[in-house]
Amino acid sequence: MSRGRGDGDQTKRFVTWIVVLSILCGCVYLYSRNSGTSALEYGSKSLRKLGSSYLGGDDDGDETTNKSGEEVQGDVILKSIPVCDDRHSELIPCLDRNLIYQTRLKLDLSLMEHYERHCPVPERRFNCLIPPPPGYKVPIKWPKSRDEVWKVNIPHTHLASEKSDQNWMVVKGDKISFPGGGTHFHYGADKYIASIANMLNFSNNNLNNEGRLRTVLDVGCGVASFGGYLLSSDIIAMSLAPNDVHQNQIQFALERGIPAYLGVLGTKRLPYPSRSFELAHCSRCRIDWLQRDGILLLELDRLLRPGGYFAYSSPEAYAQDEEDLRIWKEMSALVERMCWKIAAKRNQTVIWVKPLTNDCYKEREPGTRPPLCKSDDDPDAVWGVPMKACITPYSNQQHKAKGTGLAPWPARLITPPPRLADFGYSAEMFDKDTKVWQHRVENYWNLLSPKDSV
Ligand SMILES: *[C@@H]1O[C@H](CO)[C@@H](O)[C@H](O)[C@H]1NC(C)=O
Ligand SMILES: *[C@@H]1O[C@H](CO)[C@@H](O)[C@H](O)[C@H]1NC(C)=O
Ligand SMILES: *[C@@H]1O[C@H](CO)[C@@H](O)[C@H](O)[C@H]1NC(C)=O
Q1: Nearest to 146 by CA among 122, 124, 179
Q2: pLDDT tens digits, residue range 404-416?
Q3: Which one of 131, 219, 288, 370 has the fewest beta carbons within 10 angstroms of its own beta carbon?
Q4: Domain boundaries, the chain
Q5: What is the pLDDT of residues 371-382, one digit of tens each?
């Protein structure tokens, strides 16, 4: 993606405003749940975009904010947007199944394409405000919301009855409560998380490994209890699940206050640059990892940092019937060719670890599948980019560094990551950026927080 200088001023300001707004939301959100620390990991693209808006020096960020703020305030058109009728109270633009039926898009269901984004042409957009469900209540605040939400805010209780034996969620009067169970961890996500940390020999069975493990991707996350229970260990998990037969899993996660989004491992890359996560997790996520030459596992590989882990809790990892044994054998062979090693295997969970360098890739027999990605493949190009069944090798520089060189959390927040050099940013620019944001967040915080909520 280019630096966006060619775009019109309008577009640029709009983009800047969106970036500023989402980062502000992120900050507020993180501050509200984390006593005094906040985390923002930018992808390379947003970094570039941010860079062009103020590190480039052609305009001052505060000024931009001020201008855009006026624009939105002065925009009378906003007031005339009607409310959608109640049938659309759960409309999610670009993830609207009715649209797919109506427009007869030819999508490959076996590749989960129907769970990926498909945006309507402008004439078919609704341009109306989504109404809340009848009786909507102000959501319960974090941290209580991890364990209970108002039933009336998410009027879908069939998941509760379907999963009642697994302790996902229970309807209790006007609330839905979440005992912290999952398909795989009936006895609670906290014990499960501690057991994973124990398998990796992390001190005090704390999965954050003294700050070295901070970012987690949970695929097929259910109601995101895994991610919810990681927050208290200072680990931030992005949980994803498709809008499938269980429909509103993500709605529950978000109502609880756990970061999550509707997404699927289908045909397009997930919207994160390469080497974004320290741990990927799947417990009974019912993904066929062997399909299409292991393309989905290779997408996880792209997303994992050097030395990153994939924790996999699924019958294939332990069950002894013929079918599961066959899958286990094939998966083991595939990940071995991908140079992953078993870090630990116990009970019903296996944890693989991704290599730190290119050494193992170089030692593979010529012609070994999956192949390495071509050198012109940009592993950080993600928006609408099809997944590829290839391994993303490290650059020479990363290969020599034998790891990410990231500081442990929370020092990571203010320590320039070595990767910045790849995009031509210096430590000084990072420090300047950090100060700008500290200043802004303080300002927002002054505006937003009355004396009683520190
Ligand atoms: C924002 O705009 C207003 C009106 O033009 C101006 O008075 C104010 O000084 C500006 N604030 C900043 C921080 O630039
Ligand atoms: C954890 O410690 C045990 C016993 O010392 C050792 O056998 C095992 O390899 C270690 N596992 C990891 C992932 O470091
Ligand atoms: C897991 O395995 C260990 C030994 O391998 C055993 O002591 C422990 O009881 C098992 N835990 C569960 C929950 O099955």
Answers
A1: 179
A2: 999 999 999 999 9
A3: 288
A4: 2-124, 144-415, 424-454
A5: 999 999 999 999
Structure tokens at 333: 């062979």
- Higher pLDDT among residues 320 and 32, named by residue: 320
Q: How far is the CA of 202 from the centre of ligand 2 (A)?
A: 10
C-alpha–C-alpha distance, residues 78 and 93, integer Å? 18
- Which whole-number Å values give the CA distances from 157 to 86, 258, 284, in the listed order? 19, 19, 21
Q: Do residues 221 and 260 lie in contact, with contact meaning Cβ atoms separated by under 8 Å?
A: yes
* Percentage of the chain lying above the pLDDT 70 cut: 78
Q: Strand ranges (DSSP E) for 223-268?
A: 236-241, 260-262
SS (H, E, C) 291-330: HHHHHHHHHHHHHEEEEEEEEEECHHHCCCCHHHHHHHHH
CATH superfamily of this structure's domain 144-415? Vaccinia Virus protein VP39 (3.40.50.150)
Instruction: Render pLDDT for 54-102 as a digit per residue (tens, 0 to 9).
Output: 443 333 334 344 444 444 555 555 567 899 988 888 888 898 888 888 8
Residues 6+ apart with CB under 8 A from 173: 151
Give the pLDDT score at 75: 55
Counting ligand 2 atoms within 8 A of each CB, the residue from 201, 205, 279, 353 with the most, and so the one to mutate, is: 201
User: How does DSSP classify residue 280?
Assistant: E
Q: Name the 3-class secondary structure at 11.
A: helix
Going from the Cα of 318 to the center of ligand 1, the distance in angstroms, rounded, reads 63
The single-letter DSSP state of residue 403 is: S
For the segment 305-312, the average pLDDT, to the nearest whole number, is 97
CA angle 227, 385, 271 (to 5 degrees): 20
**What pTM, to 2 d.p., does this model score?**
0.79
DSSP conformational letter for 392: -
Q: What angle do CA 27, 29, 32 make, to 5 degrees?
A: 105
* Residue 442 host element (H or E): helix 427-448
Listing DSSP states for 131-168 in one string gives: PPPTT--PPPPTTGGGTEEEGGGS---HHHHHTGGGTS
User: What DSSP element (H or E) covers 351?
Assistant: strand 349-353
Strand ranges, E, within 157-299: 170-172, 175-177, 215-219, 236-241, 260-262, 277-283
Q: Which of 192, 196, 347 to mutate for ligand 3's pocket (most ligand atoms within 8 Å of CB)? A: 347
**For residue 165, what pLDDT is reported?**
66
Query: 10 Å Cβ neighbour count for 321?
Result: 8
